[in-house]
Write a structure and sequence with these properties.
By secondary structure, the protein is of the alpha/beta class. The protein contains 15 helices and 17 strands. Helices cover 29% and strands 21% of the residues.
Length: 425
């Protein structure tokens, strides 16, 4: 009989990259009950109380925390990659162009506003996350359909409207910061943990520096800044070393989307300056029109940039950008980001146990993923693993291999009407 993950404890075995004090456990076991991790141990240690005789699944791979994406615009992720016609100076430079409206704005409006499409869109983009190992993402609003937000209810976690107690929602803003600095600072202080702000997106042209002014305008006449520790700057491509130093002084953080930056602006964020200033850096794909398909792709772009900068980030530091760092920025470190006792069981398994454990995640492809677990529920994986948990499920082709997708027992399933990925497509 398949394991009833909602009511039965179980154990996953494999090499475990905890991203925490336990480091890497070459032959480890993760004890899971009711969606939480109850213990992380060497496979040869005695089982903790309550786990004697329970099902043990040998994954044959390396187990990591689920990937946390701190910036995206999910509802645009059914669109193809935009053939960006030229290099732009800032986001306002391309958003009003005819070529952008034809390729992005109008198709997005049609998708969102045609009857039944919103549900299909949400199902499709969440499955797209799952198939890339993303267990938490961001960006659930859509200007063309404000009601779409309510459909994002728990297949993949989202940072703005989490469904689990103890995960404080993040605030998110697409437009520029308020001109009223006192009002803006008040919003930053009112955010419980994290205020995700599109900030200084673009490059400096040496004359107007429109993007940079979004940041420099946050300085008052008396020299003080309307900044607070909750601020997480999205993109911030126009900022230089002195600006990141200011951000660090106010304990701010950064979301980096290198592929989208390069396609739209021909440059990316000065992450060397950000790192040297001590600004925490997380990764985000931005969106399908100019970003990577998922964090596995964005990790590779970040790795290339790192190498061009002389090996700025180690493989472990790149892995932290999609696990421990975003969890800390969100104020979710007590629940997610590491594999350890008391955390939610959000996990991914990569096929292979012989390569460097951190480099292996950076170089992994969708075909490398053998299992994705959210809240203790296996959502997609190889047939041999998923059959331990469900008898049915939906078959999905990933490269030359078949994966089984489980979309049942989700809090938002009533709104999506039991829609399958095949039905959504």
């Amino acid at each position: 009989m398949p394991i009833d993950t909602l009511n039965e404890p179980y154990v996953l075995e494999g090499r475990i990259v905890t991203m925490g004090p336990q480091g890497v456990i070459d032959e480890g076991a993760i004890y899971i009950r009711s969606g939480q991790i109850e213990a992380v141990m060497d496979v040869n240690e005695s089982s903790p109380a309550g786990f004697t005789g329970v099902s043990r699944i040998k994954t044959g791979g390396t187990i990591y925390p689920g990937l946390i994406e701190l910036h995206n615009h999910l509802s645009y992720n059914a669109l193809p990659l935009w053939k960006v016609p030229r290099k732009y100076l800032h986001s306002g430079h391309w958003q009003g162009t005819d070529e952008y409206k034809v390729a992005v704005t109008k198709p997005a409006m049609v998708l969102a506003n045609t009857a039944g499409n919103a549900e299909a869109l949400v199902r499709y983009v969440e499955c797209r996350c799952l198939l890339g190992g993303v267990t938490t993402s961001q960006g659930i609003t859509l200007q063309a359909n404000s009601g779409i937000r309510k459909l994002y209810k728990g297949l993949v976690r989202n940072v703005e409207a989490p469904t689990v107690d103890g995960l404080t929602p993040a605030k998110a803003r697409i437009g520029a910061p308020d001109k009223d600095l006192d009002a803006y600072l008040g919003k930053l202080k009112d955010a419980p943990n994290c205020y995700l702000q599109h900030l200084s997106e673009g490059i400096n042209d040496g004359t107007h520096n429109t993007a940079l002014k979004q940041f420099t305008n946050l300085q008052r006449d008396d020299g003080s800044w309307a900044l607070f520790k909750s601020l997480c700057g999205i993109h911030s491509t126009a900022l230089k070393a002195e600006h990141f130093q200011v951000m660090a002084q106010h304990k701010g953080s950064l979301v980096w989307s290198p592929l989208s930056n390069y396609l739209l602006y021909g440059e990316t964020t000065d992450v060397k300056a950000a790192k040297e200033a001590g600004v925490p850096i997380a990764l985000g794909c931005d969106w399908a029109p100019s970003g990577s398909k998922n964090l596995l792709g964005e990790l590779k772009v970040a790795s290339i940039v790192s190498e061009e900068l002389g090996g700025l980030f180690s493989p472990r530091e790149l892995c932290e950008m999609v696990t421990t760092t975003p969890a800390a920025i969100l104020g979710w470190s007590d629940k997610l980001g590491r594999i350890e006792k008391g955390k939610l069981a959000d996990l991914i398994v990569i096929d292979n146990t012989t390569e460097d454990p951190y480099e292996q995640l950076v170089t992994a492809r969708e075909t490398s993923l053998t299992l994705v677990v959210i809240g203790g529920i296996p959502r997609v994986g190889q047939t041999r693993l998923m059959r331990k948990f469900i008898a049915g499920g939906e078959k999905v082709q990933v490269g030359p291999s078949t994966r089984i997708l489980d979309l049942t027992t989700t809090p938002g399933d009533a709104d999506l009407g039991g829609l399958t990925l095949w039905g959504a497509r």
